[in-house]
Design brief:
Elements: H1 2-13, H2 16-21, E1 25-29, E2 35-38, E3 46-48, E4 76-81, E5 86-89, E6 95-102, E7 110-115, E8 118-119, E9 128-131, E10 137-146, E11 152-155, E12 159-164
Parallel strand pairs: 5-12
Antiparallel strand pairs: 1-2, 1-3, 4-6, 6-9, 7-8, 7-10, 10-11, 10-12
Length: 172
Amino acid sequence: MNKVLFILIMLLCTPSLPAQENKKVFVTRDANGVLVFSDSPQPGAEELTLSTRANIMAATDPTLPARKAPAAEPFSVEIVQPEEQGTVRDNTGSVYVSGKISPMFERGLRVRLLLDGKPQGEPQNNAVFILRDVHRGEHQLQMELFDQSGKLIATSPVTTFYLHRTSVISPN
């Protein structure tokens, strides 16, 4: 039974293949200049020759082109607050320090603050510091930027600022 069904299906499919190959297509232009395609010849029609080969696209390379890695811009550190030669007025001796990292602060980078050349705590993962009980007078700040392995990769210029506090001896 299966054999008979198979042969019947093959016989039904076989006549349709040559019929498609022998079809002719004609092209004409109508009064508006639009191309009109037909399977029957019209007066002034041209016969188109169609190829019977299958339209197969060439294989494409599935790999994406390699991106050129952007040139590694060196990191830089800058103290934004307090300003160079700026005055900070705070009777408690608190100084708020903020820095700017360029090109962009990445995960794993650490920043350490130096006050008058002495480290203020351990390196941390942001560039904002609060110093407490700083004595009045002139002070120098500097920031150091470390990579994931602890290697120093950038240092800010020294920023000088002046802290004004009310004197314990002479409050006026």
